Every structure is written in structure tokens, then in C-alpha cells.
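Quality-control log, excerpt.
Job 1 of 2 completed; input and output follow.
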Amino acid sequence: MPVLQPIVNIAELLYQKGITDVVVSPGSRSAPLTLAVARHPHLRVRVMADERSACFVALGMAQQSRRPVAVICTSGSAVYNLAPAVVEAFFGQTPLLLLTADRPHEWLHQQDGQTINQVGLFGAHVKRSYDLPPDYSHPDARWFIERSLNEAITLSQLYPAGPVHINVPLREPFYPTADESFSYGPVRVIDVCTAQPTLAPDTWHGLLRQWEQSDRIIIAVGQLPRDPALLAILRKLSDEIGVPVVGEIVGNISRNDVFITRTDTFLAGIDEQTAQSLQPDLLLTIGNSFLTRNLKTFLRQYPARRHWHIQPSIDRINDSFQSLTTLIPAEPLAFLEKLFADLDYQRFLQGDDDDDSDSHAFLNRWQTLDRQATRLIEKTLMPSAEQTNQLTDWSAVQLIMEQLPEKSVLHLANSMPVRYANLCGVSERQQISVSANRGVSGIDGCLSTALGAALMTDQLVTLLIGDVAFFYDRNALWSAPVPPNLRIILLNNDSGHIFRIIDGPSRQPELETYFETPHGYTARNTAEDAKLLYTVCDSLDTLGSLLPDFFQPGNTARLLELTTDKQANQEQFLAYKAHIRAFYDNKI
């Protein structure tokens, strides 16, 4: 198979550049790529028949491993099916390498099957696109292929990480004859040295002066993977310096006695006087997107005089709160550790390293409201006598979050599950790693993404997902085997429940038909087809008794379907909103 040797060598170059996992969707035009990775002794290859699901599985694998995962598919409309996961990877800053087989370009518009214009197909939603030559006879062509692969794999990992597209036109023959064998390499690996940006002393001292001139400072943490070292330095800045650390479940900010995590509740009905008392002089942000509308609205309506955003390098200006004054190219952990060390040393020199109640007054204001919001949520979840055993989506999520196994992984599907989970939170003691597709926040690949995460870890991976997202993406379970460490908890209220919660659609007579779209499905047959252990539950007491066994390790993935009533879910959420109004009306 000498004419396709450069294609065979792609598999070796993937391995040499640190890629160990490939997700393949079957096809004929892509056969040379597929055979190259399938026969490579050091690559792990997963086969997924549905290209849309396949790319989301790769996304979940990359989220969990924080390394690029390669995706291979055949030509034509198959390539377009990668697009939803590609845009999530782009805005979620997750590294993917997309290897799409193609027809030679001279066959475009010649009524040849599976032939579309694939060059640059993903547009602005990939970091870069490459189009390889279909003929390899000239040495420059082989040099170009190697150079492009080296560059693409490196680029996928450089900040901000993201997807890179390599289009691969292929001529027949695609398949080796019986007497042909594969040999890999040699390939040329081009390493790229990385360096951390360093702030000039004058710049650093200028930032310290701005800090000292600011009486009210907030650190807000957007979506980030769990990092114990980062959590530790954030706690020090709050405990010892008196800075409120505001975060959400998607930023892996766990509930403890220090961090502020209930902003979606206590900022919902905030009055002018309270809002002004919480307005920062300096806002320091790290991480990606924020989940809660109320926090984003507050920081836009009551902007900080100075707003620093810390990110590893300057790519785009992220000014989501419309108040950015300084973009700082630095690793957030390194920046915060140096910041704390310098502030702590200054306090020592000034002799005020003991706790100062005045310096903590702003922190105490935020923490007091956070604790009051916790009590308000507990009041909402406290059932009346006739509702003692009633299972609602929210009460189910609260019980689930409390019983999640320590040091496990939680994947949150979009729409209401991620919002309920944020309202409930996880305890710092549990050391849960939380992930979610919050780049573009779609429901279309949540099950596939969680399955991909489970493929990359021995830890238990729990997916909390709604019924519409689950049934939309059940092709994730098509390609067996499903990893045995996956636990799927399905909240089935027979509707797109979020539209009953949002004020606009909830008031429309077309709510059920055009927004909620009731379906009447259960997951029983899907679980049977995928050979999952299946349990259904409709009461809170039963759920409490099922969860300990459900979370036990085993040889088979499990699916727990919780059937709830959408009217009861809506009533509970409306009661929550009423409690918020009463809180501010009565100042309790």
C-alpha cells in the first residue's frame, strides 16, 4: 500500500504527538484512515455509528483527559453531523482533531455520491482548517502532510484549546490486498516549546496599587475543571484577605463556609440599596462562561470601577460584564498564588496580618446573604404533610447531590438539570469533579459527552439529564459496550420542563404543543437495547433507598429513570420565586 503510506503515517504521528484515543464512524472513503488507526498498536479506537454522537463522545473524552482526541468520518453529509460537537468544543475550549475523508476535489459538482465542498466547512468554529493533497508522489506533498499534522495537533492544545479540521481527499484503492501489511513511520515530530507569560515588574506593581486602592473586591469564577490547588488559594484569599469568592457548580466551586454559591437566589429580587452595598470596586474574573442569569445581570447593572480578567494568553477580549478594564495574560493559579504571597507579605510588613473585621465587612455582607439564600432554598424543598413523599425534579436532584460518591465525576446536561444542580450544589467534602457542555449550552450531545468522559476514567461518572435531552441523544448508547462506570439519572417529566419555568412561554396557550412537546416515552426499551441495568422510581422515599446501590461499582452501566409531574415541578419553582419575593418584601 505504498501510495497511501503518508496516510498510514498519520496514525503514527498522532501517537508520537501524544494522542492516544480516536473515535471512528464507519465509512468506505475513510477506510485508509480507519485501518491506519485500527491497526496501530498504541492507539485506542472507539467505533460510533452516528457521527453526531461520535464527535460528542470524543468531546467528553477530551474534557475528561484534557488532551486532544481524534475523530474520523467519511465524506459528504457525515462531515456536517460533526458540527454541533465542533461548535461546543470551540466555545468550550476543548481540543479535538477532526480527520474528514473527502473525494478528490475535481469530482465536486459532477453528480458523484457523497461529494460536497468540505474545505473550510466548519468556518469560524474551528481554530484552523487544513486541506491535504490527494496525491503524494512529490516529496513536498509528504512534507506538507507531516508539517500540517504537527501544526494542527499543537494548535488544538494551545490556549484557547479547540477543534482543528484536517480534510483528507483520498483516491482509490482504499483497501490493502491480502498480501499487504502496514508499517508505520518513520515520521518527523516537530515539538513546540511553551512558555508562561511574565508580567513586567512595573505592570505587576501597578496592579497591586489598583488592588490597594479598591476597598470592595470580588473574585468571580466561571466554568473551569476542578483544581484543588486553585480552590486552596481562593480559600486563602477569602479567609485571610477578606475577598468574596463567587462561583457556580460549573466552575467547580463547592459549597463550604467561605465561598458564595447562592447568587442565583439572593440576587433574584435584590433591591437597589442592597445591590449598591454589594457592588465591587474591583472585579477579578477567571474561567469561561457563567451559568446564572442573575449574577451576570447584577455585574452588568452594577459594574466594578475596575475589572481584571485573567487568562493564559491574549486571544479575544472577553468583556461579558461590559466593564473590563484590564486583560491579564497569566495562568490564573500562578497569578493568584503570587498575588496572595505579595499581599500577605505587605500585611506582615504593615503589622496588620491579624484578622481585621473592617476588611472583612464586605465579605460578611455577601456571606450573610448566601446563608439566608440557603435557608430559603431549604424552605422551598421542605414538603407539606400531603407532599412528604412527592418526587419532584428539584427534590430528586437535592437527594442525588447529597449522595454522590466522593471523588466521582458529575456531568450535567443542559436546560433544567444543570440549573437544579447549581441551586443544590455539592459539598466540598465530596470532592466531586463537575463538567457540562456550557460552550454553547445545547442539549443535543449531553449523553454522548458523559459516555465519552466515562471511557477516560475509572471513577464513577454520573449523568444528570432531562428527558428531551436523553431521547434526542440516545444514539450514544447504540455502539456497545457502554462503559460500566456510567450512571445515568433521567428526570422524565414528559416535556421540555424549562419552558414551564420561563415566564415568556409559560404564559402562552401554545406552551404544551409548540414548546414543551410531550412525548410519552420511557427509557425502558432504550436501556434494554443498550444492556443497561434499568430502574424506575416515582417517590422520594424509594429514591433514597435506591441510590446507595445505584452508585455501587459494578460490571454494567445503570440507568435510573425518575418520573415526575411537570405541574408539581412548576408549583415548586413558583413557590421558590414567591419565597424570594417575600424575603425582600419583608426583609427577613
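Job 2 of 2 completed; input and output follow.
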Amino acid sequence: MSLALKRWTILLFSLAGLLLTVNQTFLFSRAIGVVMNGQTFLYVLTLVFFPLIFLIVPFKRATTAVPGWIDWLLFALSLGGSAFLVAYAKDIVFSSWQFIAPLDAQIVAALLWVLILEAARRTNGWPLTIVVLFVSLYPMFADKMPGPLNSMSLPPAEVAAYHLYSFESVFGIPMRAFADLVVGFIVFGLALQFTGAAKFFNDVAFALMGTVRGGAAHVAVVSSGLQASISGSVISNVMTSGSVSIPAMKRTGFSASYAGGIEAVASTGGVLTPPVMGTTAFIMATFLAVPYVEVAMAAAIPAALFYFGLMLQVDAYAARRGLRGVPRSQLPTLMSALKGGWHYLIVFVVLITMLAQGMNESRAAFYATGLLLVVNQIRPENRLSIAGVRDMIAGIGCGLSEIIAVILAIGMIAGGLAATGILSTLSTELVFLAGDAPIMLLIMGALTSFVLGMGMTVSACYIFLAIVMVPALVKVGFEPIAVHLFVMYWGMLSFITPPVAIATYAAAAIAKVSAIKIGFHAMRLASVMYFVPFFFVLNPALVLQGTPLQIGVAVATAACGVAAISWSLQGYMLGSGAISDTIWGVLLRGGLLFAGLALASPGIKALGITQLECAAFGLALIVLSGLAIRFVPIFQAPETTAAGA
């Protein structure tokens, strides 16, 4: 089959999917009395976008982009299976096929089950596929599992029917969140990429940060954070922003592996950053049954703390090695950058205003996309041609297809557990294990997220823990939105933690260095991400749960704590200088780390220590550390270390 046929198929299916989604969002067909119910729309989205994945990611993708006969066969089978869902949507809903599906429906369910697993393998590799396969098969051997995992088993035909025809598995919360919220924002983010937003963000970041020490790295942090926050895609952001930032960092003295680590971490953090964030944030809003804007607002301060810590680490690294910024003559001015992209700012202001006023999230995203395209066409330098519009539609279709393939798969993680009814039992068991030490349950949640994140996507990891771990954490008294964000943050480590570390592999392709080396740098740079989730779970004021005074105090102390932790990790304290690598320097860095934790602590009730007392102790320890670095030689790094590359 020719490449041209593949391109036209993707374009036509993408166009059809976009038109159907816009119609469902704005209910245009209501004028002629034809409106799809929510479940039927899920099946229609699957029909349009899911089969494309077998053409977008061919079986022999390592050697060719042209689909082979097996890809077209799987495309046809997935198209036929999805069409069956659409044709029998009413029977599925009203005849309880998840329990009593007819034979032909059971066969189609088994076929789609296998196709979804293959789509997950093509898009995210074997780790996720193995996890989904195991959990989706779990109801078949639940009676052989030990302890709280033991439950009544189900025959294979019933398991297949439950996965495809219930509201708890493939077409459960993740897919509903995708249809109701995610599609519009993915369209908006991809439209921004095709209209040149990446260049605008880079130019603004270079104009603002390019001349400071380590300026190219600061540019990478600012630019990547801005881009990833609206694209929601770590990998695409690394490839677009990193193609400019990584070479610039290497030219100004950063090692290739460190430059790749900065880009990978900055792009990963963008998915935690409002206004758009990533797919997981929309799923979270559905789990919490709150408007997405509430999730975005709660995520704002933790994201700011994360980037603040990353910027301080970059500055400390550059200062310790005497790295300089980019000469002003080689940088764009802020006015020229704004002149070339002011319309993006207008679009963001309009989008945020619509969300703040309570408009339906998907409608707001489509309105913003429409405004972007109109304003963009006014400017000759960014104007899309017919070919550009065609490429944008196909690109949006490809992006949605890859996301839907993963979401259908991770839905079976929830389905595999829901089919046996063990979820409430697991939550109770975890609370029992925690006993009188809720912090131990929190640590268990962090470690579980970390381990699962190394083998699963952040969405899959989050959904699994939102079902199993989050209810237990809420039961012991933690704030629900803080707990959901906690799980999401720890799951995000999958992007930068070997062996998965997909963000580092993308950065490695640009930096021309081992992804493992980048991964180790990225883990160190993202160390603040290990601490910030504990900060906001233990002190919910950081996710805007409290009075203005409580929020202000929490933000101030947490910012000082993040600064101390960042200086400890990099061995350099702003205003004092580089810390020696001797045992005395190691002890001082440990003191700074302890000071940072004390500052962000909400207090120790068991010992009668208040938050302000902890903060005062932390600040005193920081001041003493700064004075020691400045005036006591045993704590000072040699001049050669501070100035050398």
C-alpha cells in the first residue's frame, strides 16, 4: 500500500473526527433533531481515531513508514469492531451486555481486547502492555490470588464483555474524560504548534533570560515549561524546544548529558503546569467531580515551586562552573519577540478568562482554537496555506489517535479491578496497615507511584492509584485534591526515571549522548519533585485549601525550603558561593537539606512544634550555612572548582 493512501486515510478520518467532535461539543445537530448520547459518542470517537494507530505506527516502523498488509488488516479489523459498537450502542447500554452479551458480541469484545493491547504496545512499548495485560486478565484468576487480592473469578468470555461493554473499563472514566475535556485542549495545543507558537516561546525566553549566567539553560526551562503546559505532550515538547535549547546549552558550556537532562525535566514539569497541563489532569477533574479550572488552580503553586527549584539548580550549576550567558547581540529583543507573537497572548487571556467564568472546558478550548486560527491568518508571516491546514488536521488526528490508543488500554486497568469488586477491600486493608501513622501510608503511596511509574505511563499509573491508593489516603484525613496531585507528581517520574525515561530518550536523540546519562542528571535536577508533593499534602494551603494568610505563609516558607534543597543538591548557595566537596561540605549540604525540609514542614504536632517554629529554625540554619560558606575556609570550594568548566 502506498504512503499517499495512508496520508489521505489519516486526513479524511481526522477531518471526520474533528467535525464530529465540534458537533458534539456545540450540539449543532440539535437543529435537525439528531443528538448522540454520551456513550455512543465514545464509540464514534473510537471508530474514527482508534484504527488510525495501526497506520501511524506500522508493525515495521523501524525500517519504514509505509503500512504493510498486516497494518491494513488490523486497521480494517479495528474499524469493523468499532463500527459494531456504534451500531449496537443502544443494546450495549440498555440490555446490560457487560453481564449477558450475545455470542457475536463476546467475539467482537475479545477481538477489540487484543487490538487494544497491540495498539498500546505500538505506542508505549512492552512495559505498559504487560501491566495492562496482567491486570485485565486478573478477573480470570482472582480466586488464586493471596490475601486481599483474592476474589471470585470470571470466565474469559464474561471478562472480555465486561472490559468492552461496561462503564468501568475501556469506556470508563479515562475515556469519558478524553471525550468531554481532553480533545478540545489537544486540538488547541497542536494548533499552537502548527501556527508557530514554539518560536514565540523560545524568542521570549531568550529575550528575558538569555544574558544571565547559564542563560541558555534558563531559556530551556522557561520555554519548555510554557510550551509543555499548553501542548500537554512531553515528547513533542522535548523535540521542538530541545532542538533549539540543547545545542544552545552545549555552546555555552553545559555538558551534553546535563543539557539533555535540563530539557527533559523542564518539559516534564510543563505537564504539571496550568493552564492546560496534560491528559491526566483532565482525568483527575473527572475523578474529583470538579471543574478542570479547580485542578489547574490547585496545581499552580506546586508547579511554580518545582520550576523555582529547577531554575535555582541551573543557576547554581552555572555559577559553580563559571558559565556565562549568551551575548545580547545574539539574542532577540523582548519587543521584537512580542511583536511577532502578541496574538498568542491574546488567545491565552481569552482562554483563561472563559475558564475562570465557568464555561464548559471543551467549548472554551475550541473557541480559543478558532480565535487563534483567525488571528494567525491576519499575520502574513504565520499564515497557514491550504497544505498547512491539511498538515495541521492530519497532525491533530495523529495526536488524538495515539492518546486514545493509550487511554483505551489503561481503562482496562480500572476494569480489571472493578470486575472483581476488590477496590473497597484494598482501600480498607491499606488504612489498616497504616494504623496510627498516616505518613507511612503516604510514603507507601509515593513508593508505589514511583515503582509503577517506571513501567507505566503517568495516566495509567495515576488511574491505578486513584482507584486503589487515593481512597485510603483520603480516609486517613488528607485533602482529596492534594492526594490526587501527589499521585500524579510521583507518577510523572516515569518520564525521567530509567529504565522507561521516555523524555530522556527524546533528548538523547538531540544531545547525541546516552539516554542513561541524561536520566541520571534528570533525576537529580528533578529532585525537588520528590519533595514538593509531600509539602502540599502535609500543608494543603499550597493547593489553595486555606485562608489567604495561611496560603501566603505556606508559599513563602515552601519557597525558602525549595531554595535550600536546590542549593544542597548542587553544592552552591546564592550569595555565599560554592560548597567544598570535603566531608565538611557534605555535612553542610546535609544541613541545608534539613533546613529546607524544616521550612516546608507544617509543624510537628506530636512534639508540639508549630509551623512557624519549624520555619524559624530552618531560616536560622540557612543563615548560619551561608555565613559558614562565606567565612569558614573548610566549607569553601577551591577557586579552581568554582570557576572551572
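Post-run check on job 2. Confidence is low (pLDDT under 50) at residues 640-645.
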